[in-house]
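Thread title: Can someone regenerate the structure for this chain?

I was given the following input by a collaborator and told the matching structure tokens would be attached. They weren't. Posting the sequence so someone can regenerate them.
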Amino acid sequence: MSNDTITNMITSIRNANLGKVKAIEIPATNATRDIAKILSQEGFIEDFIDNQRDEKNILMLRLKYQGRKKKSYITTLRRISKPGLRIYSNHKEIPKVLGGMGIVILSTSRGIMTDREARQKKIGGELLCYVW
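Best answer:
Regenerated them for you:
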């Protein structure tokens, strides 16, 4: 595992969606908790539970599927800003995903938030990932 916990989280969710896995465990950090909270509020995952096992904080995510074929609510989850190349945007230039159907998760000076919240508060930041 690398030191980029956000990329590890995104990759774990993407792999779990391909395998139709109901729950996954990822290392818990402040950033992964905030992203899980946003995904839960926006309806992309059912919920998340913060656990501690063997003195390690673990975040358990319960993924959300629909129908008998178990179609995932998350169709695409893509990392934008990476440790080698940071991508920043002001509030006017934050991209809209699928005309507002998807979300962009940003890291701002006031915490991690969605693109809608950032535009409303008129603050920009680092673009973390696209979700739709």
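The chain has a mean pLDDT of 96.
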